[in-house]
Amino acid sequence: MTLYLIGLGLGDEKDITLRGLEAVRNCDQVYLDNYTSVLQCSVFQLEKLYGKKIILANREMSEQGAEKIIGEANKKEVAFLVVGDPMSATTHIELFRLAKEKKVPVKVIHNASVLTAVGVTGLQLYKLGKITSIPFPEEQPGLETPYKVLKENMKMGLHTLFLLDLKPQQNKFLTINKALEILEHIEEHQKEKIISEETLVVGCARLGSEEATIKKGKLKKIKETDFGKPPFCLIIPGKMHFLEEEMLELWE
Fold first, then answer.
1. Which of 140, 216, 218, 246 counts the most CB atoms within 10 A of its CB?
2. Band of pLDDT at residue 122, cut at 50, 70 and 90
3. What is the pLDDT of residue 152?
4. Nearest CA to 135 among 83, 186, 191, 90?
5. Bridge partners, residue 232, by sequence
6. What residue ranges define each of the domains in the chain, with the CATH number in brackets?
7. pLDDT above 80: residue 63
8. Distance between CA 97 and CA 206 in Å, rounded?
């Protein structure tokens, strides 16, 4: 018996790979990670194409229930579906590790990830610095982390990719506008100023889908831009090559 960690890509139900689709259809039980990101389609659409009933896995089921999922995979074919690539989040890496530890066969079927899809902006991926997330403002622990990461990346001339927090089960998504406000708020309490309303930023929504939106501009302008539906991410470019600058002009 086997545990399959399957990436769904970033768009809709059709973004799954042929190998991934074949594996899902051969599985006895199918879980869907329901908290690290969202697709631009409904669970019903996934079930219709895959021909399988899907069990939504929230954070507790994915983390605290990992032993249960591995136990099931020891007796039958189990698929754990992940938006993007299955090995981009710590939770899914832990599922892989635990399966190996329990001697349960595990197979990974990769797919597109936001970590590569941001390349459409024209910013070169190898110049991305440390990637960080911006949590909701009420979650104080770690709230200053993204600012510290930005500061470190800027010193090295690297681009900073911010993944914005989300709670799909509560239909709650941190917007690009709010994320910029959070960075500005943290900036007010810092001795060293590294951003301003004139700072160049790139806002992205629904990357990898047909409805992707990318906007480049000064912070004060992007903060007033409506990006529509989630998921969202934000980039503050570091030192750019002239080809990167020319590509970014397309998103003005």
1. 216
2. very high
3. 97
4. 186
5. 205
6. 3-111 (3.40.1010.10), 115-251 (3.30.950.10)
7. no
8. 30
